[in-house]
């Protein structure tokens, strides 16, 4: 899919995803080694965006499995279409039982769910397993076969093996410790908060109307906030939101009033806002 | 290629020695990553190997210095560098003002080369980061760099400039780390990377001894409280599920067997009443063990919804309840220790810890906090400063509580030395050695009542 690490960064940048060297290198390796990619990091740094960008670059179909508490086999892998099976049985009254039995457990009556869809696909596919940490531990066991061998075993049909390996991205907010078995099957990528330079470029790309000086100030203030040990440090998404807010407010430069009035855009807890205001020498709110 | 393979296995060996679990499969992946990336770009190689070998963000702190040793930036010192201290400081000030990381790294190498060498005979010489920094004193450049940045381009002044101090401090801190890394690299050239990687690299935060942790490590530990608590809560829930299944209730099994002619077809299990246990924590908050106590208090507070009631008491030589100070949301974890010492009455006539008096006071004032459903944890090194250990109070506590555990942050070998009353207490309450966050996590998962 990619020829070099530079190729990855350049092509991701075309879709509007600016990748740090770590991200570009790891994506390149995941493609080259054919291993799934486990992406961890705080909320709002672009974990899901990465999968979407890769899909767009590769011209691949994006198959997404959104995990939640209680997601199970029939939501993730496949399900038999019971209604259709019943119809088939009642339609063929004169057949022998053996014919019916072999027929109703065929591909036609199988409802593929995301994992099976991604495995069976003939065209290039990016499989995104989002928020893996939200799923139960049992679900991880289900993923192991898919992730290590790219195959799924359906008892009535046999084993379905991928003809074309999908590019797999798993994301996690570290809400729960993922099992060691799952981790060892993946390349691990931790996306943290970006370097100042990269974040400036991101803001410039997403909010082109904002002046260069203001962009720099915004990034510096956010950087200082992140160093403050807050309950929820502002993420890239918040930086971009803030930049958009400042643009909408028509602020030319950052000053105390503007920061004080818009601090709620980047900080989501009242204690954090108070703490930040104190450290930044704003007047009491 | 064999030399490179050896590098990789050496790197993996060093990481394993630091407790990172890496299987053979991952080592092979790392080698394939090396093949795919080549050696041209070192930072890419670093990211690639990290992706293949590591499983969590916490391991990165160990990986980076070890990587620097096995894939060094260069060999030997910079050639023909000026070793003049003042000139070096001038150039460093410029690099800091411009935030030029590449130049800072180069200056770090020059500084170690020029200022950090000691000893002369081949066996005893080496390179010292401490000596380099002591002679170079980068922290004293703060004012100068500030003036440079402010005066230089006149970056518009404005709001963001009030952040300048902190930014420059962070840059200086980064430079100090570079010096440390370069000194390690030079020493590793002389003695081989294996030895330095095992000894010279700081372990991950959860393996640091509580008693010797510095401020940064304690801050790092505090950040691990929430993830650790979530992990422990999952484990407790699993234990609770297993425990709820219970044992066979013989009387009811026989009773129900009458309907099948006296043959017990279906065993009846004893149902456990779901009772959330109560927890009482007695923490020594004196200077020597406060890091340990603070961490444990935060951890227990993070687990508070697992229990019907959690009460926390702190003592030095007087004892006071501090449950209110730990309230959720309000807790500023960094200042917790200071707040406890400021707001609670912990000391009487003098400032050193006295277990006997404090335990006696607990029995007297808060005796009603302990009942048959209560599990008590005592945290402390059991060093009484030669005072009376007041064993009667502990005996009384052990009699009334469901269980009493004592977590001692000292190594077992030191129990009973000097003024430690640990062996005497250990006879009355189950005492466990608890020196690192990792040990604490394992103990809590095992000892907490379900």
UniProtKB/TrEMBL annotation, chain A:
Top-level lineage group: Bacteria
Record CDD domains: AAA (cd00009)
Domain AAA+ ATPase intervals: 33-197
Gene Ontology MF terms in the entry: ATP binding; ATP hydrolysis activity
PANTHER family named among the record's database cross-references: MAGNESIUM-CHELATASE SUBUNIT CHLD, MOXR FAMILY PROTEIN
Identification of the protein by name: MoxR-like ATPase
Native species: Streptomyces filipinensis
Lineage, opening ranks: Bacteria, Bacillati, Actinomycetota, Actinomycetes, Kitasatosporales
UniProtKB/TrEMBL annotation, chain B:
Protein origin, superkingdom: Bacteria
Protein name: VWA domain-containing protein
InterPro entries per record: UCP010256 (IPR011195), Uncharacterised_CoxE (IPR008912), vWFA_dom_sf (IPR036465)
Organism: Streptomyces filipinensis
Lineage of the organism: Bacteria, Bacillati, Actinomycetota, Actinomycetes, Kitasatosporales
């Amino acid at each position: 899919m990619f020829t070099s690490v530079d190729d990855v960064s350049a092509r991701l940048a075309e879709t509007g995803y600016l990748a740090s060297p770590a991200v570009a290198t790891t994506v390149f390796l995941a493609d080259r080694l054919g291993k799934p990619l486990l992406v961890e990091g705080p909320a709002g740094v672009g974990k899901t965006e990465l999968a979407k960008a890769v899909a767009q670059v590769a011209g691949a179909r994006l198959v997404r499995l959104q995990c939640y508490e209680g997601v199970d086999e029939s939501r993730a892998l496949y399900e038999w279409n019971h209604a259709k099976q019943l119809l088939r049985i009642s339609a063929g009254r004169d057949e022998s039982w053996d014919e019916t039995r072999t027929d109703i457990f065929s591909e036609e009556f199988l409802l593929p769910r995301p994992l099976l869809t991604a495995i069976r696909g003939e065209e290039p596919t990016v499989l995104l397993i989002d928020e893996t940490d939200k799923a139960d531990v049992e679900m991880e066991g289900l993923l192991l076969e898919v992730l290590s061998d790219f195959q799924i075993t359906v008892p009535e049909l046999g084993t379905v093996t991928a003809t074309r390996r999908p590019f797999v991205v798993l994301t996690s907010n570290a809400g729960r410790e993922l099992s060691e078995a799952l981790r060892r099957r993946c390349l691990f990528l931790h996306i943290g908060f970006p370097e100042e330079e990269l974040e400036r470029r991101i803001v410039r790309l997403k909010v082109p109307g904002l002046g260069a000086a203001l962009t720099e100030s915004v990034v510096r203030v956010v950087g200082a906030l992140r160093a403050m040990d807050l309950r929820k440090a502002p993420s890239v998404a918040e930086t971009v939101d803030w930049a958009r807010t400042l643009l909408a407010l028509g602020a030319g430069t950052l000053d105390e009033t503007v920061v004080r009035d818009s601090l709620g855009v980047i900080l989501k807890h009242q204690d954090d806002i108070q703490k930040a205001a104190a450290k930044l020498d704003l007047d009491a709110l | 290629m064999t030399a490179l393979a050896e590098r990789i296995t050496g790197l993996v060996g060093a990481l394993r020695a630091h407790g990172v679990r890496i299987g053979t499969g991952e080592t092979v992946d790392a080698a394939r990553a090396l093949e795919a990336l080549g050696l041209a770009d070192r930072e890419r190689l670093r990211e690639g190997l990290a992706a293949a070998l590591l499983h969590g963000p916490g391991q990165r702190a160990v990986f980076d210095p070890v990587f620097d040793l096995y894939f060094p930036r260069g060999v030997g010192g910079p050639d023909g560098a000026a070793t003049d201290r003042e000139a070096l400081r001038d150039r460093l000030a410029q690099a800091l003002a411009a935030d030029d990381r590449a130049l800072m790294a180069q200056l770090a190498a020059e500084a170690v080369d020029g200022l950090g060498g000691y000893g002369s005979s081949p066996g005893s010489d080496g390179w010292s980061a401490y000596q380099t920094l002591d002679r170079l004193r980068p922290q004293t450049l703060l004012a100068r760099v500030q003036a440079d940045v402010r005066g230089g381009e006149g970056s518009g002044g404005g709001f963001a400039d009030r952040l300048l101090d902190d930014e420059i401090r962070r840059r200086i801190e980064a430079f100090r780390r570079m010096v440390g890394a370069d000194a390690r690299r030079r020493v590793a050239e002389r003695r081989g990377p294996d030895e330095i990687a095992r000894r010279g690299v700081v372990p991950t935060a959860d393996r640091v001894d509580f008693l010797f942790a510095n401020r940064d490590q304690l801050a790092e530990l505090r950040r691990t409280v929430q993830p650790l608590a979530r992990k422990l809560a999952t484990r407790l829930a699993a234990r609770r599920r297993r425990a709820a299944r219970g044992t066979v209730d013989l009387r009811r099994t026989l009773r129900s067997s009458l309907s099948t002619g006296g043959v017990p077809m279906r065993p009846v299990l004893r149902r456990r009443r779901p009772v959330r246990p109560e927890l009482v924590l007695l923490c020594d908050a004196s200077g020597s063990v406060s890091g340990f106590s603070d961490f444990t208090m935060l951890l227990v507070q993070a687990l508070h919804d697992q229990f019907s009631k959690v009460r926390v008491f702190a003592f030095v030589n007087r004892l006071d309840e501090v449950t209110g100070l730990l309230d959720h949301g309000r807790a500023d974890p960094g200042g917790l220790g200071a707040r406890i010492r400021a707001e609670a009455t912990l000391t009487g006539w003098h400032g050193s810890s006295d277990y006997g008096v404090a335990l006696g006071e607990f029995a007297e004032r808060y005796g009603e906090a302990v009942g048959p459903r209560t599990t008590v944890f005592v945290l402390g090194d059991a060093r009484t400063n030669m005072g009376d250990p007041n064993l009667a109070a502990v005996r009384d506590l052990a009699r009334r509580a469901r269980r009493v555990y004592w977590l001692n942050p000292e190594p077992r070998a030191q129990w009973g030395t000097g003024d430690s009353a640990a062996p005497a207490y250990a006879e009355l309450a189950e005492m466990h050695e608890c020196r690192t966050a990792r040990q604490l996590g394992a103990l809590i998962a095992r000892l907490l009542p379900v």
